[in-house]
Amino acid sequence: MKSSEEKLAEILKNREESGLLRTLQINESKIDFCSNDYLGLAKNKELGNLISKASESLLTQLNLLSYNGSTGSRLISGNSPLIEQFEKECATFHQAEAALFFGSGFEANLGILSCIPQEGDVIFCDKLIHASLIDGLKLNKVEKRIFKHNDLQDLVHLLEQYPIDTAKWIIVESIYSMDGDEAPLAELVQIKRKYNAEIIVDEAHSGGIYGPLGEGKCVELGIENEIFARIITFGKAWGNAGAVILGSQILKEYLINFARTFIYSTAPSPMHVNSLLCTLNFLKSMDTSRQQLFENIVFFRSHLKSIQWGNSHSAIQTFFVNGNQAVREKASQAQKMAFLIKPIVYPTVAKGKERIRITLSALSQKKDILNLIQILEKDA
After folding, report:
1. Is 290 found in the same domain as 275?
2. How many CA atoms within 13 Å lie on the side-chain side of 155?
3. Are strands 31-32 and 143-147 parallel, antiparallel or unpaired?
4. What is the CATH number of the domain that holds 230?
5. What are the pLDDT tens digits along the chain (380 aa)?
6. Phi and psi angles of residue 348, each rounded to the nearest 5 degrees, phi first
7. Domain range holding 83?
8. Which of 34, 111, 254, 322 is the most buried (most CB within 10 A)?
9. With b meaning 16 or more CB within 10 Å and e meaning fewer, what string describes 63-87?
10. Statement to judge: residues 271 and 339 lie in one domain
11. DSSP SS3 for 114
């Protein structure tokens, strides 16, 4: 009889033989075209100095120096004036009534979708929503309908199958993480009004970038008051970690009571919250970096020649190479030239949609952009 570890080893071996084994790597001294550090804040020395200088004085003021960590979940012992201050300022910045902190975007998405839709409700989700949203939906027993990606006609077709008084939830991302395309948010608002629906928007890849000060795509479009909940994550353009769910005060109080990923998670440490407060204020002054990012996107798109490129106008760009082995080989060519890029293979994406996912940032250099395009388009 095989031991438990032998069974696990066999599963891993089968995964390796199928070319799907994941491994951790330390990426050093390479040209970054795969991280989500869109504004370069994770590497920003000025911000780092501000965080360091603010830490001692802020924590002393709040009498928190005795705590290296938070000591527990927020409902037990981990709540503090510091995190409540951050949530208040974060809500104000994003033009929301309230904000609730979660340890990650994954936790936020898992938490809200597992507990908000109620028995008798129907969820309508875009086919290409993130894995965290999918997992949240799996934890909720209400009826789910999947509409074709960004296909409003298909969404309306599904909505019309239910009575007007049925509570309906539309789940989308403002910028989709694999293809980099945008959800038609303004049109979705018109649909939600007509069909008595609510909208939940994952703004992971738009927070910090879009809007006058980086408040996200919904604020840029002026529809933030039409959205039931927005999820802003701090591991992308913020260059940090964690997330908030933005919405009404009632929503916040409900999540505190029913979102298990909030209730049973350790609160963030004072040092973490302090770094987020500093980043929030710093983000407001990043107009030049946001402009540079958009200029890099335009520059990148203007030099593409191959038909294998996707049609994205965001920081996320895709170069399609059919087949897991082929896309890995193509990515390897660029990696050998010191470019930090990653192939995205089946089953993470649909078969035939394997691609190299490229992320641009405000720090991307034009010469590096041109070299990378040339390497990928060679023999394509």
Report:
1. no
2. 26
3. unpaired
4. 3.40.640.10
5. 899 999 999 999 998 888 788 888 877 778 999 999 999 999 999 999 999 988 877 666 666 555 678 899 999 999 988 999 999 999 999 999 999 999 999 999 999 999 999 999 999 999 999 999 999 999 999 999 999 999 999 999 999 999 999 999 999 999 999 999 999 999 999 999 999 999 999 999 999 999 999 999 999 999 999 999 999 999 999 999 999 999 999 999 999 999 999 999 999 998 899 999 999 999 999 999 999 999 999 999 999 999 999 999 999 999 999 999 999 999 999 999 999 999 999 888 989 999 999 999 999 999 999 999 999 999 76
6. -60, -40
7. 54-283
8. 111
9. ebeebeebeeebeeebebebbeebb
10. no
11. helix
Q: Which two tokens stand for residue 14?
A: 């089968």
Handedness of CA 14, 19, 22, 24 (dihedral sign): positive
What's the 3-state SS for 49-66? HHHHHHHHHHHHHCCCCC
DSSP summary character for residue 355: E
Do 124 and 229 have their domain in common?
Answer: yes
Tokens (6 digits) for 332: 């390897």
The reply to whether 149 and 203 lie within a common domain is yes
Instruction: Tell me, yes or no, whether 275 and 294 share the same domain.
Output: no
- Kindly give, in sequence order, each residue whose CB lies less than 8 Å from that of residue 342, ignoring residues fewer than 6 positions away: 34, 331, 356, 357
Number of residues written out for the chain: 380
Q: Is residue 19 part of a domain?
A: no
